[in-house]
Structure formats: structure tokens, C-alpha cells
């Protein structure tokens, strides 16, 4: 079936229900200022579950609506949707200045079919913006596409090249979040670089809020990809800017603790142990910042109760930044409870796209790109040695256990381990 054009669709009412559906090849002429592409390499992570869960509210379902030509009942866009994924696609046809054969990085459909994008050139050079009306409410980062010069065809990649490419695809979106958190939300240089509120909006977020110089960070779900990226970024900061230390709470407590910042890694069940709390107290923090990347079960509540129950830590201010969610499909009741808990605990939601927009507004797209480029290059050269337990599993196509279908099934069941990365060749 994968030899024909097919798409992976997910039920909007119950994200655990999904199917692979055949597509009719388009015979329509390509519109002006457009490209027709085929998805070639994409990854699946817990973020894809978030795209489905928040698909209506945050308009991720609008990115690639199911085509009306799909067979019933899957042509019903109110009931079924395509979950997008990050990676690469190849240009098949073009009515823009982009030439066929060009490889582009961006947000693609989980489909082996041909997809049309209406694009405008943007800054810096090589960047393009998708401007279709149905995507107008999508956050800006999901409408940004980047030309990748001299990228080889998927079929010509050696195994080592494929593994390196997979690594970059897997971490590039989450790496960006870590950079924004470490360098702009908790800016190490507030006198020259104004701190940005985690939501990226004009809400109050002072230099004192952003100051990590006397802070212990608690990283929940610390072995996840976003958390590891963020931890690396924090380790790149000048030591005087903090944090004093990072407590990593994870289901796989054998992850590394190397680097200039004091680190301690524990299992979820060790949150309330005396030695854990003593480790925090010895660092003498003035505040604790919890970065919740999707802590399991009641881990956050257990952490807060443990801090309150310790005489040396009970009076400390605790700031909680919500960055990710647990790898599972949430019921409507769980989503509502999560929102209520957000308010109850005073959590601050992190929004990567809006923080990025705020940073760019303070400088320029060119300046932001230039500031990120050398840091990304350093990450690419160092990260595989720093995270030796992370393994890439390369699947093929849409259908079956070895394709997108199987990956989605495993994500829904919470079966994709924190040391596993899923890449798919389409």
C-alpha cells in the first residue's frame, strides 16, 4: 500500500483511533507562488501527541486538512485529521523561485502523497513562509520553512549519514526550545538581552524572574529530548549566571551528570528521600525553578510536598514552567484537570513559537539566525557523545508496525522510551 500515495489519519474524538488511507494523485495545476512537495524524512515524538490533543484549540489540525477526495468516512475534516511532523521534504514542482529537487526543512504531513504549499520568501535568505488562508491562525514557527542547500537525496544517504540526519531531525525542534528557555526566558545577560516571558506575551517577566544565579533547577522528565537539549544549553551559560545545580528526575536515572553545573539524577520514587532534599539544601538556593517537561503521574505534587516538608526549603519560592506533557493520550477529563492544576499551582506555560517571535521582534530575523547558527553547530558536534544512550530507530513508510502507523500506536500506549528516537523514510 505504501507504494501508492497514502496518508495517516487520526480520529479527533479519540486519538488512539487511526488509519492509513489511500489518496488520489492530484491532476490540478500548481497555483502561482507555490511548491508541490513529497515528505521524505520525518520523526515522531511525544510532541506529535500534543499536536493531536491541541489540534483544534491551537489549529494544528488546520496545517494539512484531510482532502475532500479521500474515501469516506476519512474525508470528514471535522472527525479526522492529519498530525504533522518535523523533518524534510523534496520539491517536485514549483511556480516560485525554488527549483524542483530542492530539500526543505519544516512541518510536514504524515503522508506519502504530494502536498502543495503557497509560499512567500522571508528573512533571512533561504527562509519561506506558508501563507495559505487555512493556516493563518497557526503559530508562526509552524509556517516557517527553510531551504537546505546541497542536501543529498534520501536514497543516497549512507547508514552513518542517515543516522546523523536522523539525530538532527529528532532534536532540532526540541533543541530550539532549550535555547529559548536558557538564553531568553532565563537570560544570562538581562542588562543587554531583555528577558522574555515564557508565553512570549507582554506579561511581566523581570530580570529578577529570569535570574538563575542563586537557583536550583528541577527538571521533571529529565531524560526526554527537550529536557536534555535544555540541560545542554544551561551548561553553556557563564557559571556566574547560574543555575547552582540541576536536579534531574527521570524514569532512566543513568543519564549523564557531566558538565560545569552541579547535577544529581534520581528516579521518580526518590523525590522525597532525605539525601535528595539535603543535596538541594547544600547548594543554598534562594529560589527553585521547576521545568516540567512532562513528569509522570503525581511526580510534581510529590516534589512540592517534599519541599514544603523540609525545614530548610519550605520557605523558598518555587516557579513552575510547564514545557511538555506525559507521553500518553489524555481523556477530556484529564485535559480539564490539567488546566485546573495549571491555575491551582500557578504554573507558567511555555510557548516556543511566541517566545521566538518576541526575541526576533527585539532584533531581526537575520540577527536571531546568526546567533543560533554557531550554537547549533556546536550541539551537532557534541551531542551524540553526550547522549550515548539515545538510539535511533529508522522505520519506513506509513503502513504497518514498521511505519508511521506502528510509531503512532506505540506513542499512544506510552511505549516509546526516552532513549529511543523514531525516524521514518517515506
Question: Can you describe this structure?
Answer:
The chain is an alpha/beta fold. It folds into two domains: 6-156 and 390-425, Alpha-Beta Complex (Quinone Oxidoreductase, Chain A, domain 1), CATH 3.90.180; 172-358, Rossmann fold (3-Layer(aba) Sandwich). Helices cover 29% and strands 24% of the residues. The chain is built from ten helices and 17 strands. It has helices spanning 46-53, 159-185, 207-210, 225-235, 274-282, 299-308, 332-344, 352-362, 365-386, 404-412; strands at residues 6-11, 18-22, 34-44, 80-81, 85-94, 103-108, 114-122, 127-130, 144-148, 215-220, 245-250, 262-267, 287-292, 317-322, 348-349, 391-396, 420-425. A six-stranded antiparallel beta barrel has the order 3-5-6-9-8-7. Helix 7 links the parallel strand 14 and strand 15 (348-349). It is globular, with a radius of gyration of 22 Å. It starts with 5 loop residues before the first strand and ends with a strand. The model has no long low-confidence stretch (mean pLDDT 93). It holds the Pfam family DUF2855. InterPro entries: DUF2855.
Compressed to H and E, one letter per element, the order equals EEEHEEEEEEHHEHEEHEHEHEHHEHE
The count of helical stretches stands at 10
The domain count comes to 2
Radius of gyration in whole Å, from Cα?
A: 22 Å
Strand order of the largest sheet: 3-5-6-9-8-7
**Main β-sheet, in a few words?**
6 strands, antiparallel, barrel
Number of strands: 17
Query: What CATH architecture of the largest domain would you give?
Result: Alpha-Beta Complex
CATH class (first level) name of the largest domain: Alpha Beta
The parts where pLDDT drops under 50 for at least 5 residues are none
Distance between the termini: 12 Å
Mean pLDDT: 93
What coarse outline follows from CA principal-axis ratios? globular
Hey, roughly how much beta strand do the residues contain? Answer: 15-25%
Structural class: alpha/beta
- Specify the helix fraction band: 25-40%
Stated plainly, the CATH topology of the largest domain is called Quinone Oxidoreductase, Chain A, domain 1
Pfam families: DUF2855
InterPro entries: DUF2855
Amino acid at each position: 500500500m505504501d507504494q501508492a500515495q497514502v496518508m495517516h489519519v487520526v480520529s479527533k474524538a479519540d486519538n488512539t483511533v487511526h488509519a492509513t488511507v489511500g489518496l488520489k494523485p492530484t491532476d490540478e495545476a500548481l497555483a502561482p507562488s507555490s511548491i508541490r512537495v513529497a515528505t521524505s524524512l520525518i520523526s515522531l515524538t511525544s510532541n506529535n501527541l500534543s499536536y493531536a490533543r491541541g489540534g483544534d484549540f491551537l489549529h494544528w489540525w488546520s496545517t494539512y486538512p484531510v482532502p475532500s477526495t479521500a474515501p469516506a468516512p476519512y474525508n470528514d475534516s471535522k472527525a479526522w485529521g492529519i498530525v504533522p511532523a518535523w523533518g524534510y521534504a523534496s520539491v517536485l514542482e514549483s511556480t516560485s523561485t525554488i527549483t524542483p529537487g530542492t530539500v526543505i526543512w519544516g512541518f510536514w504531513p504524515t503522508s506519502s502523497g504530494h502536498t502543495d504549499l503557497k509560499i512567500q520568501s522571508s528573512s533571512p535568505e533561504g527562509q519561506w513562509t506558508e501563507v495559505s488562508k487555512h493556516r493563518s491562525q497557526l503559530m508562526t514557527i509552524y509556517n516557517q520553512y527553510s531551504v537546505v542547500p546541497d542536501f543529498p537525496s534520501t536514497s543516497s544517504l549512507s547508514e552513518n549519514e542517515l543516522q546523523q540526519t536522523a539525530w538532527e531531525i529528532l532534536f532540532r525542534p526540541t533543541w530550539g526550545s532549550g535555547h529559548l528557555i536558557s538564553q531568553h526566558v532565563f537570560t544570562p545577560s538581562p542588562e543587554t538581552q531583555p528577558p522574555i516571558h515564557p508565553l512570549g506575551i507582554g506579561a511581566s517577566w523581570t530580570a529578577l524572574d529570569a535570574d538563575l544565579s542563586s537557583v536550583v533547577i528541577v527538571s521533571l522528565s529529565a531524560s526526554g529530548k527537550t529536557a536534555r537539549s535544555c540541560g545542554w544549553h544551561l551548561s553553556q551559560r557563564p557559571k556566574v549566571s547560574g543555575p547552582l545545580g540541576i536536579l534531574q528526575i527521570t524514569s532512566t536515572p543513568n543519564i549523564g551528570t557531566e558538565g560545569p553545573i552541579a547535577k544529581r539524577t534520581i528516579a521518580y520514587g526518590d523525590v522525597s528521600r532525605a539525601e535528595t532534599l539535603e543535596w538541594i539544601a547544600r547548594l543554598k538556593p534562594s529560589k527553585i525553578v521547576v521545568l516540567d517537561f512532562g513528569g509522570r503521574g503525581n511526580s510534581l505534587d510529590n516534589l512540592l510536598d517534599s519541599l514544603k516538608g523540609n525545614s530548610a526549603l519550605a520557605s523558598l519560592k518555587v516557579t513552575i514552567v510547564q514545557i511538555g506533557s506525559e507521553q500518553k493520550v489524555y481523556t477530556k477529563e484529564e485535559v480539564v484537570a490539567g488546566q485546573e492544576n495549571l491555575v491551582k499551582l500557578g504554573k507558567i506555560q511555555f510557548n516556543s513559537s511566541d517566545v521566538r517571535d518576541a526575541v526576533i521582534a527585539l532584533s531581526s530575523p537575520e540577527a536571531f539566525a546568526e546567533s543560533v547558527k554557531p550554537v547549533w553547530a556546536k550541539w551537532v558536534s557534541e551531542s551524540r557523545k553526550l547522549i550515548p544512550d539515545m538510539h535511533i530507530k529508522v522505520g519506513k513508510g506509513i503502513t504497518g508496525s514498521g511505519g508511521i502507523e506502528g510509531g503512532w500506536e506505540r506513542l499512544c500506549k506510552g511505549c516509546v522510551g526516552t532513549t529511543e528516537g523514531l525516524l521514518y523514510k517515506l
